[in-house]
Write a structure and sequence with these properties.
2 strands, 3 helices, coiled coil, Coiledcoil domaincontaining protein 19, mitochondriallike [Pseudopodoces humilis], two-stranded antiparallel sheet, mainly alpha
């Protein structure tokens, strides 16, 4: 019996040992599988990271090239725009100078002449005939400055002065 008991114990221990070995092998297989999956996942993650970094580098290069092209284009655009703007400004400046010479200086001369005539208290007056100022002897007429002071006539600053003078002559001659 003792022997049987020992055999049973040995059998049980052998069975337990065998079960433990089987479980250890199974655990080892699971660990190997887990490590293999981990290594595969790590390889996949590294590959994905390399792919992401490669794409990022390409995007950065493309952005750099685009900004470089845009900067060159901007320079070209701004250079062209600046040249055009300078031309326009020069043209406008010339137009302004022409306007000043055509309008301002003759007017300034005319007003000075009128003031001088008023100052001299001369018996002559300035009249317009065929677009030019001429000096005529004063009849019963009135000078431009007096007309401006009485607010009968607008100051002589536009192209309609010939018509206005004709109207004023008619008005003055009827008075």
């Amino acid at each position: 019996m003792m022997r049987l008991k020992d055999d049973i114990e040995v059998g049980q221990t052998y069975g337990v040992e065998r079960e433990r070995v089987r479980l250890a092998r199974q655990q080892n297989e699971l660990d190997k599988e887990w490590r293999r999956k981990e290594m595969e996942d790590a390889r996949n993650r590294a590959e994905q990271n390399r792919e992401i970094n490669r794409v990022r580098e390409e995007q950065i290069k493309q952005r750099y090239e685009i900004t470089a092209r845009a900067a060159e284009g901007d320079k070209n655009y701004w250079n062209k725009a600046q040249v055009e703007m300078k031309e326009v400004l020069e043209h406008d400046k010339l137009n302004e100078e022409i306007k000043l010479k055509v309008n301002y200086f003759p007017l300034q001369f005319q007003t000075r002449e009128i003031d001088f005539m008023n100052y001299r208290n001369d018996k002559t007056t300035l009249t317009i005939s065929s677009g030019k100022w001429t000096r005529k002897k004063k009849k019963k007429g009135i000078t431009c400055l007096e007309l401006e002071k009485k607010k009968i006539m607008k100051p002589l600053r536009d192209k309609n002065t010939k018509r206005e003078w004709k109207k004023l002559k008619k008005r003055n001659s009827s008075n």
